[in-house]
Design brief:
Helix content: 25-40%
Strand content: 5-15%
CATH class: Alpha Beta
CATH topology: L-fuculose-1-phosphate Aldolase
CATH architecture: 3-Layer(aba) Sandwich
Strand order of the largest sheet: 4-3-2-1-5-8-7-6
Oligomer: single chain
Mean pLDDT: 92
Shape: globular
Amino acid sequence: MSAYEIDAGRSAAPSTSGSEAGRSLSGSDLEAGRAAAVRRIVSDLHAELVRNRLVAWTAGNVSGRIPGADLFVIKPSGVSYDELTPETMVVCDLDGNLVEGEHRPSSDTAAHAYVYRAMPEVGGVVHTHSTYASAWAARGEAIPCVLTAMADEFGGEIPVGPFALIGDDSIGQGIVATLSGHRSPAVLMRSHGVFTIGADPRAAVKAAVMCEDVARTVHVARQLGEPLPIAPDDVDRLYDRYQNVYGQRSPR
């Protein structure tokens, strides 16, 4: 599969309510099954944003690309996290147009869509206004790589992207321009918040969790004095080990 593995055969049948109050997919059963699977994954991952205290009220969103289709699933606009279900998730095309669902898509849909168009390797995008990372964004300051956890996950500093207004793909353009040639899966959009990318939605959520964690730790370290940077060669070694050795590997 193009972005991540989806077991469409075990997915619940897609909701047909979209054809009554919104729009519904008109493609193959396989495409509909994959869409249903991604809707379930994306819905479940929104609970991780709440559990890790990355969001307040209805702010923030997770999206996931539907493998094998020019479509993605995203949170609906302004809907409470308590009310989110696989059925409330909406499906959009890569221009940000609603394809399936009863609700209007997130106000950040254009940004997500631009990332998916420009970065075909990306399978998931997350946006939060998490407290510490957003504080760095408000300062317009990159988070320096002073922790091994940062070297592991981000491969260096967490960069700052330009200020951009919400509503069109200006934010998406800033995300792509900032992360192009960067190992970091996270960017601090100036005066706004955090956007993260990943090979799948879960990886993007992990990056958002880790971004807030290191933003807080580096802030605390600065209260004690100036944090010590990690040498670039050591950052490279730490990143390579974590990305290629750490954790479990599926048997071939």
